[in-house]
Each structure stands twice: as C-alpha cells, then as structure tokens.
Fold this protein.
Amino acid sequence: MPVQVHHLLRAADAGYLMRSSMRHIIERLMAVSEQYLDYVVDQLGCVGQVTAKKMFGGVGLYHEEFFFGLIAGDVLFFKVDDVNRPAYQEARAEPFKPYGDESYSMSYYEVPADVLEDVDKLRVWARAAVSAAERKASSSRTRKKTKTR
C-alpha cells in the first residue's frame, strides 16, 4: 500500500474515532435519569398526554404529534419562537446548545425550576411550547406545499 494512502486511512480512522468518541461524550452529557424523566412527565400531565421518546442520549417530548420539549442532562427545555421567547429571556433562561457554549443554539430554552415545580405556571409555559411547535409544523407544511407547486 502506498505511504500516502496508508496515512489517509489512518487519518480517516482517527477522524472516525474522534467523531465516535465525541458522540459518546455528548450522549453521556445529555443522559437523563429515569427519576427525572418520570417527574417531568408526571408534571406535564397538566397539559394532557405527553409521550417521551429517547433520542441522541436525551429525551424528546411530544404532545399529540408535536415535538415541544426535550430533556438533556436532567434539564427540561421547551420549544420557543418569537411569540414565547420573551418569557424565557425575562426569566434569564439559557438556550439549548447541544455542543457547548461555543456552539449554535436551537429553538429550545431551559424551563426555569420555579415553573417546573408549579403546575399552574408549567401548564401555561407547556401550552405555549406546544403552540410554538404547532406554528413551526404549520410553516414547514406551507413551505413544502409552495415548493411542490
């Protein structure tokens, strides 16, 4: 085997190992304890049926077909958009950044502890997150219809 090809293969293997290792680290950081998951799902019963699906080391939360929240590292995050984001900013909640502080943030913000602990507050915030997810799904469907015409 030519030397250059051998070095390229070793570099490719190293890249794979680094990505694999990084994925493992991220999954460990996003790990969710069963106790926390049970607590959150129980609290979210205030908005009706919530389904929890394990994904990428964390958990996705669905109400009906809408993906409105996620849990990563025993922290609850809700879907936000321009309508409900100000409440999170006012509460100084942090956005979900799956790859650390230097990475991009997704459209999910941490739910303040006082909101999670108060079912009446949680109901308002969870419904707003479900509404944000519905708006996102609706706008995605509209864009897809426009592209197919």
